[in-house]
Design brief:
The chain folds into 2 domains: about 70 residues, Orthogonal Bundle (Rna Polymerase Sigma Factor, Chain: A), CATH 1.10.1740; about 80 residues, Orthogonal Bundle (Arc Repressor Mutant, subunit A), CATH 1.10.10. The protein is mainly α. Helix 1 packs parallel to helix 3, helix 2 packs across helix 3 and helix 6 packs across helix 7. It is built from 7 helices and no strands. Helix content is about 80%, strand content about 0%.
Length: about 150
Amino acid sequence: MFRTVFAVLHDQKEAEDAAQEVFIKIYTSLSRYENQGFKTWMTRIAVNHAIDIKRKQARRKEEVVEALEQQALGTPKDGVEKELIENERRKLIRKRLNELPDNYRDVIYGFYIAEKSYQQMAEEQKVQVKTIETKLYRARHWMKKNWKEDDFS
């Protein structure tokens, strides 16, 4: 049992604990055993338990990373500053969106701001999906040609 669990976890202490837990699971699950391949049945329980442990470890790591990222974001004062800067940037982007030609503004707003699919926009505008794709392509091209990245900082 230990070797089976260790093959998944690659950690001796974790595998020892998991092997003991597997024996308890096997004992409590004996009533559900269907008399077909006892060794295979036990191995399946062991592998599944080891995989569950591995997933829990991965989630814990993610939680630790998220907590560290929250700490790295800084003090509430920094959060307020960042929020103000972000609000100013949003205002600038909205202002710049209003500079777009009408037919381009609709597709840019629909796709990027309202997060609509090509199909949704095509149905709303009563045009083909290909027309939306073309408009979006031309709108991006217009923005590259007429705007500089420095305009948004």
